[in-house]
Amino acid sequence: MNTQELSGRTIIVTGGGRGLGREMAYGLAKKGANVCIAAHIEEDINRVSSQSNEMNLGKQLFSILADLRNPEDCRKVVEKTILHFGDIFGLINNAALTFTYSSPNRYKKDYSNKFYELSDEVVQNVLDTNFIAADRMARLITPHLIKNKVGRLINVTTRLETMTKPGASPYGPSKAALENASEVWVKDLEGTGITVNIVNPGGAADTEGFEISEDRELAGKKVGGMVAPYKMVAPVCWLMSEQASQITGMRFDAIHWDENNPPEEEAKRIGRPLGFFLK
Q1: What structural domains does the chain harbor?
Q2: How many CB atoms lie within 10 A of CB 1?
Q3: Whole-model pTM above 0.90?
């Protein structure tokens, strides 16, 4: 894909301060996109600002400190992005509270908390971050996309087997809600020029979200290896490009995407319809 193929396209990446989100944000900017990174940890924001300047991407990367569980912070992200870049073309709903929040040190302890052992606060925070905030961000942005008759929504969920494995609550159910919502959005946006797709790592991501640094080697051995964050870059950059303007309602597991092949071929090879099929 041409380096400047995303030039002029403004994309919001939630949870963009670290891990998968940061990798996607940098990858999009390197392809020419304007990127707003929304993150809730000030240290991550400062690191992104420093790194973006070192990579000569400072003009294309705009970071906002925001807790997306707060409706006003979501509105602030959208309003400041438009004020800074002039418009919005796409959204990547990546922000999430994961197993490191609901069941910390699970690999070291060899135990994941059961649903009935979780506090109301943990369950609510996970749902508010992983689904409610993603839904809210999409609702805030979509009217702008409809007005422009073009746009992209990409949601990061998880593998279907991860949603339902023992100890997966509340992370699994929150991602199942986003998966199901994605299918509804596809139908609601038919004929508008806006596409909705899902991109997942396709395995345990080698990030702080999957396991803290000191336990990651142990976790990697137990799950049989991890997916490098850079694997997310090629599929999301392609989905944000003009080449993918007709691709909607699909899910892609990034681990299987071969960056050395034409993206259209990879999309056909590994893509499958998003959503669920009843057993």
Answers
A1: 10-273 (3.40.50.720)
A2: 16
A3: yes
